[in-house]
Amino acid sequence: xxxxxxxxxxxxxxxxxxxxxxxxxxxxxxxxxxxxxxxxxxxxxxxxxxxxxxxxxxxxxxxxxxxxxxxxxxxxxxxxxxxxxxxxxxxxxxxxxxxxxxxxxxxxxxxxxxxxxxxxxxxxxxxxxxxxxxxxxxxxxxxxxxxxxxxxxxxxxxxxxxxxxxxxxxxxxxxxxxxxxxxxxxxxxxxxxxxxxxxxxxxxxxxxxxxxxxxxxx
Length: 218
Prior knowledge:
Elements: E1 11-16, H1 20-23, H2 33-50, E2 53-59, H3 69-81, E3 109-113, H4 124-130, E4 135-141, H5 143-156, E5 160-169, H6 178-192, E6 195-197, H7 199-210
Parallel strand pairs: 1-2, 1-4, 2-3, 4-5, 5-6
Helix pairs in contact: 2-7, 5-6
């Protein structure tokens, strides 16, 4: 398995879609949404101290739904077939707002994206290239949809990808539990797209390179 070093100055943390609808309180929220936010807040604090760029993404469509697309039609149909709320991720709604649990620093970047992947229909690639970023850390919700898609997009653009095993969350699907869905996603990503590691392991890489004091020491 690949084991990349981490240079904080050329690395960005991508907090994927830690929005109300995915974190808690909605029928499609991740069961461990608040725990994922807490993990990502902890990692983001280390990243900021070390000089890692922190970017928060938020998935939303235009209020008139003009950029909704086929994928959204599929999801709405899926939700309806399972008796779940049709809802949506329209701009201006409570659903799409970033969770109040999420810490957003004034120096962080908030990126609005219309599709699952953070590179599609956004200027993310332009931002990263302009700042000399060649590595991304990916966490957030959902493991198997927006996080997975963003990881694949990043890899295909030749970014080194760190994917967080315990910094992502998701629901179960069909007859699969949430843990089974995550396990399959992580196995595929580790095989072909990313280095999969825990938040603690990621913090260790960052602090080792940046020579920062280990959290909780002394």
